[in-house]
Fold these 2 entries.
Entry 1:
Amino acid sequence: MPDRFDLPAGFRWGVATAAYQIEGAVAEDGRGPSVWDTFVARPGAVRDGHTGAVACDHYHRYPEDIALMKGLGLDGYRFSISWPRVLPTGAGAVNPAGLAFYDRLVDALLDAGITPLPTLFHWDLPQALEDRGGWLDRDTAYRFADYTAVVADRLGDRVPAWITLNEPFVHTVFGYALGTHAPGRALMFEALPAAHHQLLAHGLAAAVLHERGLDVMLSNNLTPVEPATPAPADLAAAAAYDALHNRLFTDPVLLGRYPDLSALGVPDDIYGAVRPGDLDLVHTPGLDGLGVNFYNPTRIAAPTDPGLLPFDLVDIPDVPHTAFGWPVVPDALRQLLVHLHELYGKSLPPLTITENGCSVEESTDPDHPRIDYLSAHLDALARAAAEGVDIRGYYTWSLLDNFEWAEGYHQRFGLVHVDFDTQRRTPRASYAWYRDLITAYRGRNER
Ligand code: FCB
């Protein structure tokens, strides 16, 4: 059986983070407020009232964090650029100090031999744009393309590949359908215009990046969907959920069309959001790579109350669960990748795992659940590669413990422990394990 040491030659090793989760410095050097700054101030929105105001203080401590990455021997670092740090009101005037921060970060990464892989949008929309409708407003897509041009013009000479959006599925569903993430809107299926406008933003930004000779990727949270039983009602519910979670985002980008959303009761034009020509804008620029964020598979049953939703999410018993309560099923990653390969065929660009990892209780020392999780998922990745899937790299989530959205600082995903009172960083056992894995992989593959 192939294992992680058999991953293809030239495979790229990395870690991933996101701006609001690590930077802090939310009111420094001219940064404007984002929807997350607003959301965390809402009573009850985030566990224990935690906020990202300081987070890992990475804005000031990035040299120390890059030294930690260098110690791992990474090829690449996936981080996100805070739109409101660069354009405090989302559009118009550029904040030179904000751009200068990312300029320093990129140079420091390159000095450490690490290729920067920026994400342009990881959920921290400028509040000024939210005040005009946020992703429910089509204009936000055009503002995103303008912002992309500003950043690409500054960093494109040193940054070869870019990720436009992070997880439009999670942002749409948690942020706009359920309201458990910023901006906290609970529109149920009427949230889906926010998905269309993010896809439009992706397409417009992809064209901007390609015009500058830069590579484009899109990262979504993807999950293999399994019916609870082979009964037709469970199969239909699973197909409806798959359309919403996975295909709503990959079909337009890779195939230029939306999947059938009728089982969700969503009109073909997504409540009037889809205009003639939009799908060409989304699809035609093409993708140089698809970013796959994978945490767990999803089991779906027919709804107990069909008036509410056309599916029920059910737990997967008899498997380990992470501290977050997510089921651990490593082979589901292989299944997902092989399924993508079969479903999209030649339309599927090379894949990169842009997030994968698990939260572990702070008291777990050494952090064996994390090492077990990562090694089993990398083995599953190697099996998918052996089955013919083109996989180019793996960015584990995350370098540091950080602000885990509505969970605040309660979920710890880091290879490096962070003491949020002192900002002291302490590499965990999984840090040494990942470093040794990268070294051993290179020893076997790059002789
Ligand atoms: C993903 C997010 C990332 C992080 C991990 C645990 O959905 O993209 O920011 O929160 O989950």
Note: DSSP finds 14 helices and 13 strands in the chain.
Entry 2:
Amino acid sequence: MSLVQPWELRAAFARSLSGMYGHEVPAYTTLLDVSQEVNEDVLATQGDAAERLGSIARVTAERHGAIRLGSPAEMSQVARIFAGFGMHPVGFYDLREAATSAVPVVSTAFRPIDSGELARNPFRVFTSVITPSDRRFFSADLQHRLEAFLDAREVFPPELLALADRAEADGGLSSAEAERFLQLATASFELSTEPVDRAWYDELEAVSAVAADIGGVRSTHINHLTPRVLDIDDLYARMEARGITMIDDIQGPPKWEGPNVLLRQTSFRALAEPRTFRMPDGSVQQNSLRVRFGEVEARGIALTRQGRAIYDAAIVAARDRSVGADAVGRQDVLREIWRRDFPTTEAELAERGLGYFTYDVVDGGLNLTPIVYEDFLPASAAGIFQSNLTSDGSKDVSQIGTELDEDWMAGILGRELHDPFELYAAQSETSRVRAAAQLGTSDLITTPGEHS
Ligand code: OOG
Ligand code: NI
């Protein structure tokens, strides 16, 4: 009997979460409808060019999720679950540093790492873990109570973990097991109806809304699910026209006439969702929380380390120069810097070693295809976290933060943490070697600085 393949499990998981989240957050369904309209229109007007960074089938099914977990143990469990879906940890993001308000988490993203797997279904999940040992946010007393609370909860049932391990070891599951795996995995990210302990939640919220969202409840949930669009400016305008309030900015690179790189993201504001609370006097009351939102993104070409350095500098320069400006002003400033620093063609991005491409031989000549950026951006992620917080929380900058880095993340996951630059570089290099062999030459253009 043939097994259900990891990519089929992954695609089904993304669909299943999407169905669940649509029931939980109806505005997400509106976002999907508008995304689909935008993508159909871009395809109709641009034809093949619309599919330069992925087939329309891939883009239509493409989602990223965001989840927030409570402990190293939960991280290592989720790594097993995602491995069953063919998703592996890539990259390290320190949101404690990137955000000005209190965001006491560090993160990685689970995603397919093989180009064939990405083409079949690129589902990725931005996964954050809270940092109770960081004294900028938590006192020793609160740290210990929070850790005790989190250690006592079970967010992923043993049956789910066993199925995940089997899927990873065998490279798939029988259809009956696949169904059970999907059911349990989806259910573990469903918003719980269990009453929230109001006093505990409020105590954590005074430190950080993110801390309360993670550590104030005994389960986890999807924070958002993000579709991909081919024209995010058009999407933004259409959502506002439908009366849905969007955050002020589209995060990331500006809209401009040259090649799209990295990632542009925006979201509608978190909506009040009904939740039940257990009050200090023991009574149970209905109220609401505003933590989950709808995000949308447009993906561009992956940048090399050199390209990325230009990007990072441009974002910092634009921020410094647009103090007091509105969203339109901020875009204008960034676009001006962009036009100065980034080339206007893909060929030049490749020649200057700023972007990643694959190479193949077409009609005896070298053909370049851009590699799509599959990861996230720390400044944007901080912006996304921040624009949806109800309060800034508190951060004592006089304290020294706990050192938590890539190695720490790899250690708690118990797995290799992949470096996104190395993944893109390897893909590019493999294609380059193959094309060179076909052309019978060894001096194809190389991407400067990529061979460390
Ligand atoms: C994750 C925020 C980061 C993105 O797209 O950059 C993120 C969160 O709010 O939990 O999802
Ligand atoms: Ni996101």
Note: Confidence is low (pLDDT under 50) at residues 448-452.
